[in-house]
Amino acid sequence: MNERFREIFFQVYEPLPRQGPGNLDSAGRALALCRHLPPSPMILDMGCGVGGQTLHLAHLSPGTIYALDYHAPSVRRLARSVTTRGLEHRVRPIVGDMAYPPFPPASFDLIWSEGALYQIGMERALGVCHGLLGPDGHMAFTDAVWRKTDPPAEIRESFDLDYPAMTTAPAIVSLLGHCGFELLGRFTLPDQAWWQDFYCPMEERIRELRPRHLHDAQALAALDLLAREPELHRRYSDYYAYEFFVARKGTKTPQGRG
To answer: What is the pTM assigned to this prediction?
Structure first.
Protein backbone atom coordinates (compact mmCIF):
# COMPACT_ATOMS: atom_id res chain seq x y z
CA MET A 1 0.00 0.00 0.00
CA ASN A 2 1.22 3.52 -0.72
CA GLU A 3 1.98 5.86 2.14
CA ARG A 4 -1.19 7.95 1.89
CA PHE A 5 -3.42 4.87 1.78
CA ARG A 6 -1.53 3.43 4.74
CA GLU A 7 -2.14 6.63 6.70
CA ILE A 8 -5.89 6.58 5.98
CA PHE A 9 -6.05 2.83 6.64
CA PHE A 10 -4.78 3.33 10.17
CA GLN A 11 -7.04 6.34 10.70
CA VAL A 12 -9.95 3.99 10.02
CA TYR A 13 -8.72 0.83 11.73
CA GLU A 14 -6.90 1.98 14.86
CA PRO A 15 -9.97 3.34 16.73
CA LEU A 16 -12.04 0.20 16.02
CA PRO A 17 -12.73 -2.29 18.82
CA ARG A 18 -10.93 -4.91 16.72
CA GLN A 19 -9.28 -5.11 13.28
CA GLY A 20 -10.96 -8.26 12.00
CA PRO A 21 -13.92 -10.59 12.56
CA GLY A 22 -14.39 -12.21 15.94
CA ASN A 23 -16.28 -11.94 19.21
CA LEU A 24 -16.25 -13.10 22.82
CA ASP A 25 -18.54 -16.07 22.24
CA SER A 26 -16.34 -17.44 19.46
CA ALA A 27 -13.21 -16.97 21.55
CA GLY A 28 -14.85 -18.85 24.42
CA ARG A 29 -15.87 -21.68 22.10
CA ALA A 30 -12.32 -21.99 20.76
CA LEU A 31 -10.75 -21.86 24.21
CA ALA A 32 -13.08 -24.62 25.40
CA LEU A 33 -11.50 -26.91 22.77
CA CYS A 34 -8.12 -26.49 24.47
CA ARG A 35 -8.82 -29.17 27.05
CA HIS A 36 -5.31 -29.85 28.35
CA LEU A 37 -4.10 -26.38 29.34
CA PRO A 38 -2.61 -25.79 32.79
CA PRO A 39 -4.76 -23.79 35.23
CA SER A 40 -2.89 -20.53 34.52
CA PRO A 41 -1.40 -20.93 31.06
CA MET A 42 1.28 -18.85 29.42
CA ILE A 43 -0.39 -17.39 26.33
CA LEU A 44 0.98 -15.55 23.29
CA ASP A 45 -1.42 -13.46 21.20
CA MET A 46 0.30 -13.18 17.81
CA GLY A 47 -0.61 -10.08 15.77
CA CYS A 48 -2.71 -8.62 18.56
CA GLY A 49 -3.51 -5.26 16.94
CA VAL A 50 -5.34 -3.04 19.45
CA GLY A 51 -6.12 -6.15 21.46
CA GLY A 52 -9.87 -6.76 21.23
CA GLN A 53 -9.27 -10.50 21.40
CA THR A 54 -6.48 -10.06 23.95
CA LEU A 55 -8.96 -8.55 26.38
CA HIS A 56 -11.41 -11.36 25.61
CA LEU A 57 -8.68 -13.85 26.52
CA ALA A 58 -7.98 -12.00 29.75
CA HIS A 59 -11.66 -12.30 30.58
CA LEU A 60 -11.86 -15.99 29.68
CA SER A 61 -8.58 -17.25 31.11
CA PRO A 62 -6.57 -16.56 34.29
CA GLY A 63 -3.34 -17.02 32.37
CA THR A 64 -0.54 -14.57 31.60
CA ILE A 65 -0.83 -13.09 28.09
CA TYR A 66 1.96 -11.66 25.96
CA ALA A 67 0.41 -9.62 23.16
CA LEU A 68 2.72 -9.11 20.17
CA ASP A 69 2.28 -6.77 17.20
CA TYR A 70 4.64 -4.85 14.91
CA HIS A 71 2.49 -1.68 14.86
CA ALA A 72 3.57 0.38 17.85
CA PRO A 73 0.52 2.73 17.99
CA SER A 74 -1.81 -0.28 18.25
CA VAL A 75 0.33 -1.81 21.00
CA ARG A 76 0.30 1.51 22.88
CA ARG A 77 -3.49 1.62 22.65
CA LEU A 78 -3.69 -1.91 24.04
CA ALA A 79 -1.31 -0.93 26.85
CA ARG A 80 -3.67 1.91 27.80
CA SER A 81 -6.62 -0.48 27.79
CA VAL A 82 -4.68 -2.91 29.97
CA THR A 83 -3.88 -0.16 32.47
CA THR A 84 -7.46 1.10 32.53
CA ARG A 85 -8.69 -2.42 33.35
CA GLY A 86 -6.00 -3.08 35.95
CA LEU A 87 -4.58 -6.02 34.01
CA GLU A 88 -0.89 -5.03 34.00
CA HIS A 89 0.04 -8.07 36.11
CA ARG A 90 -1.39 -10.47 33.47
CA VAL A 91 -1.30 -8.79 30.05
CA ARG A 92 1.99 -7.59 28.57
CA PRO A 93 1.79 -5.74 25.23
CA ILE A 94 5.01 -5.98 23.18
CA VAL A 95 6.10 -4.42 19.88
CA GLY A 96 7.67 -7.13 17.76
CA ASP A 97 7.69 -9.14 14.55
CA MET A 98 5.60 -12.33 14.36
CA ALA A 99 8.19 -13.87 12.07
CA TYR A 100 10.92 -13.35 14.70
CA PRO A 101 9.17 -13.29 18.09
CA PRO A 102 11.45 -12.33 20.99
CA PHE A 103 10.86 -15.46 23.07
CA PRO A 104 12.87 -18.64 23.67
CA PRO A 105 11.59 -21.99 22.40
CA ALA A 106 8.83 -23.79 24.32
CA SER A 107 7.80 -20.60 26.14
CA PHE A 108 4.03 -20.96 25.82
CA ASP A 109 1.14 -23.29 26.59
CA LEU A 110 -1.19 -21.58 24.11
CA ILE A 111 -0.64 -19.44 21.03
CA TRP A 112 -3.64 -17.40 19.91
CA SER A 113 -4.01 -15.42 16.70
CA GLU A 114 -7.09 -13.95 15.09
CA GLY A 115 -6.72 -13.10 11.42
CA ALA A 116 -3.00 -12.33 11.54
CA LEU A 117 -0.86 -15.39 10.79
CA TYR A 118 -1.33 -15.14 7.01
CA GLN A 119 0.73 -11.94 7.02
CA ILE A 120 3.96 -13.96 7.28
CA GLY A 121 2.70 -16.96 5.31
CA MET A 122 0.67 -19.68 7.00
CA GLU A 123 3.29 -22.45 6.77
CA ARG A 124 6.00 -20.20 8.15
CA ALA A 125 3.68 -19.00 10.93
CA LEU A 126 2.81 -22.55 11.97
CA GLY A 127 6.49 -23.41 12.08
CA VAL A 128 7.20 -20.44 14.33
CA CYS A 129 4.31 -21.38 16.61
CA HIS A 130 5.41 -25.01 16.79
CA GLY A 131 8.80 -23.93 18.09
CA LEU A 132 7.35 -21.55 20.68
CA LEU A 133 4.97 -24.11 22.18
CA GLY A 134 5.95 -26.42 24.96
CA PRO A 135 5.09 -30.13 24.96
CA ASP A 136 1.35 -30.66 24.48
CA GLY A 137 1.01 -26.93 23.70
CA HIS A 138 -2.10 -25.64 21.94
CA MET A 139 -2.78 -23.05 19.30
CA ALA A 140 -6.03 -21.38 18.26
CA PHE A 141 -6.28 -19.11 15.25
CA THR A 142 -8.67 -17.74 12.67
CA ASP A 143 -8.01 -17.48 8.97
CA ALA A 144 -10.02 -16.38 5.95
CA VAL A 145 -10.98 -19.35 3.76
CA TRP A 146 -12.91 -19.94 0.57
CA ARG A 147 -16.25 -21.75 1.01
CA LYS A 148 -16.89 -22.18 -2.72
CA THR A 149 -14.53 -22.88 -5.60
CA ASP A 150 -16.07 -20.36 -8.01
CA PRO A 151 -16.18 -16.94 -6.29
CA PRO A 152 -17.16 -13.99 -8.51
CA ALA A 153 -14.22 -12.08 -9.93
CA GLU A 154 -15.04 -9.01 -7.84
CA ILE A 155 -14.59 -10.75 -4.50
CA ARG A 156 -11.70 -12.90 -5.74
CA GLU A 157 -9.82 -9.77 -6.84
CA SER A 158 -10.57 -8.06 -3.52
CA PHE A 159 -8.94 -10.86 -1.53
CA ASP A 160 -6.08 -11.15 -4.03
CA LEU A 161 -5.01 -7.62 -3.06
CA ASP A 162 -4.28 -8.68 0.53
CA TYR A 163 -4.27 -12.48 0.66
CA PRO A 164 -3.55 -14.06 -2.73
CA ALA A 165 -2.61 -17.37 -1.05
CA MET A 166 -6.01 -17.70 0.63
CA THR A 167 -7.19 -21.31 0.48
CA THR A 168 -9.86 -23.62 1.95
CA ALA A 169 -10.44 -24.94 5.46
CA PRO A 170 -9.49 -28.54 4.49
CA ALA A 171 -6.22 -27.22 3.03
CA ILE A 172 -5.42 -25.50 6.35
CA VAL A 173 -6.19 -28.73 8.21
CA SER A 174 -3.79 -30.58 5.94
CA LEU A 175 -1.12 -27.93 6.50
CA LEU A 176 -1.54 -28.26 10.26
CA GLY A 177 -0.69 -31.95 10.02
CA HIS A 178 2.27 -31.19 7.77
CA CYS A 179 3.56 -28.71 10.36
CA GLY A 180 3.33 -31.11 13.30
CA PHE A 181 -0.10 -30.30 14.76
CA GLU A 182 -3.14 -32.40 15.62
CA LEU A 183 -6.47 -30.73 14.85
CA LEU A 184 -8.78 -30.61 17.89
CA GLY A 185 -11.66 -28.82 16.22
CA ARG A 186 -12.73 -26.05 13.91
CA PHE A 187 -15.81 -23.94 13.31
CA THR A 188 -16.98 -21.05 11.15
CA LEU A 189 -17.39 -17.64 12.74
CA PRO A 190 -21.02 -16.47 12.73
CA ASP A 191 -21.92 -13.46 10.62
CA GLN A 192 -22.49 -11.41 13.77
CA ALA A 193 -18.77 -11.72 14.48
CA TRP A 194 -18.10 -9.72 11.31
CA TRP A 195 -20.46 -6.87 12.11
CA GLN A 196 -20.81 -6.12 15.81
CA ASP A 197 -17.27 -5.01 16.66
CA PHE A 198 -15.76 -4.76 13.18
CA TYR A 199 -17.77 -3.76 10.11
CA CYS A 200 -20.43 -1.64 11.86
CA PRO A 201 -17.80 0.44 13.71
CA MET A 202 -15.74 0.57 10.50
CA GLU A 203 -18.59 2.03 8.48
CA GLU A 204 -19.29 4.57 11.19
CA ARG A 205 -15.62 5.55 11.32
CA ILE A 206 -15.50 6.04 7.53
CA ARG A 207 -18.56 8.31 7.76
CA GLU A 208 -16.79 10.34 10.46
CA LEU A 209 -13.63 10.75 8.39
CA ARG A 210 -15.16 11.82 5.07
CA PRO A 211 -15.93 15.42 6.14
CA ARG A 212 -12.37 15.82 7.42
CA HIS A 213 -10.95 14.97 3.98
CA LEU A 214 -13.41 16.76 1.68
CA HIS A 215 -10.61 18.42 -0.29
CA ASP A 216 -8.19 15.47 -0.30
CA ALA A 217 -8.86 13.30 -3.34
CA GLN A 218 -6.33 10.63 -2.29
CA ALA A 219 -7.86 10.28 1.15
CA LEU A 220 -11.39 10.06 -0.25
CA ALA A 221 -10.28 7.42 -2.74
CA ALA A 222 -8.74 5.42 0.11
CA LEU A 223 -11.93 5.70 2.15
CA ASP A 224 -13.96 4.55 -0.86
CA LEU A 225 -11.71 1.51 -1.24
CA LEU A 226 -11.96 0.64 2.45
CA ALA A 227 -15.75 1.06 2.37
CA ARG A 228 -15.96 -1.63 -0.33
CA GLU A 229 -14.98 -4.36 2.11
CA PRO A 230 -18.17 -4.44 4.21
CA GLU A 231 -20.28 -3.86 1.11
CA LEU A 232 -18.69 -6.83 -0.65
CA HIS A 233 -19.33 -8.91 2.45
CA ARG A 234 -23.04 -8.09 2.23
CA ARG A 235 -23.09 -9.35 -1.33
CA TYR A 236 -20.68 -12.28 -1.33
CA SER A 237 -20.36 -13.70 2.19
CA ASP A 238 -21.61 -17.10 0.99
CA TYR A 239 -18.32 -17.54 -0.87
CA TYR A 240 -15.88 -17.14 2.01
CA ALA A 241 -15.66 -17.24 5.79
CA TYR A 242 -13.42 -16.88 8.78
CA GLU A 243 -12.67 -20.26 10.26
CA PHE A 244 -11.46 -20.89 13.82
CA PHE A 245 -8.89 -23.70 14.03
CA VAL A 246 -7.80 -25.24 17.33
CA ALA A 247 -4.87 -27.67 17.36
CA ARG A 248 -2.40 -29.33 19.69
CA LYS A 249 1.33 -29.69 19.15
CA GLY A 250 1.96 -33.27 18.10
CA THR A 251 4.80 -35.60 18.92
CA LYS A 252 5.88 -35.96 15.29
CA THR A 253 8.55 -33.75 13.78
CA PRO A 254 7.04 -31.29 11.28
CA GLN A 255 7.58 -32.54 7.74
CA GLY A 256 10.49 -30.84 6.04
CA ARG A 257 11.75 -29.35 9.30
CA GLY A 258 14.72 -31.08 10.82
So the answer is: 0.94
